[in-house]
Amino acid sequence: MMSNRDPLYGRTTASGVDPFEASPRPGNTDDTGDTKDKAKDAANTAKDKGQQAMDDVNQKGQQAKQKAGEGTGKAHDKADQGMDKASSGLDQAADKLREKGGQQGGSMGSTATMAADKLESASGYLREKDTDQIVDDLEALIRRKPTESLLVAAGVGFVLSRIFR
Predict the structure, then answer these.
(1) pTM of the model
(2) I want to staple 94 with a disulfide (CB 3.0 to 4.6 A). Which of 13, 21, 102, 116 is the partner?
């Protein structure tokens, strides 16, 4: 049987490679420059794609913010229109109440006049304020008088449940 070893040195195999010879260090090969360039190219490509993804996300976020702002603007416009209608309705109710109270006379007439004045005051408040100001005023009132606000909310809920029953 034939051996793979060189009879003189006993180290070289049939392929001609000495298995005990020191392997070349990574920095000493000719492909090292190519490998580094490829790694830099890959890193730059990944960085560019990451930046592009971030730009896309930012753009989508801006678009969503813009659409939300448009929706909020439409909601405010509708709320303002509703407040205008409510203001007109309160004015009409105050006029009718004053008319009916004038026909009654006495304490009933004066009570109706006071109620009509309050309705006109509420109507003026709705005309003067926009939606944000009314919400701010309502929040301030609830913070100042939480118990009374809770009782009013419960009363309104009770009345509405009776109406829609």
Answers:
(1) 0.47
(2) 116
Contact 8, 2 (CB under 8 A): no
The DSSP secondary structure of the chain, one letter per residue, reads: ---SS-TTTS---TTS--TTSPPPPGGGSTTHHHHHHHHHHHHHHHHHHHHHHHHHHHHHHHHHHHHHHHHHHHHHHHHHHHHHHHHHHHHHHHHHHHHHHHHH-HHHHHHHHHHHHHHHHHHHHHHH--HHHHHHHHHHHHHH-HHHHHHHHHHHHHHHHHHT-
Neighbours of 48 (CB within 10 A): 10
Tokens of 121: 């005051």
The separation between the first and the last C-alpha atoms of the chain, rounded to the nearest angstrom, is 107
- Could you give the C-alpha distances from 99 to 24, 27, 28, 122, 142, in angstroms and in order? 108, 102, 106, 18, 34
| pLDDT tens by residue, 116-160 | 899 899 889 888 888 888 889 999 999 999 999 999 999 989 988
d(CA 17, CA 14): 8
Rounded Cα–Cα distance for residues 91 and 117 (Å): 10
pLDDT of residue 149: 92
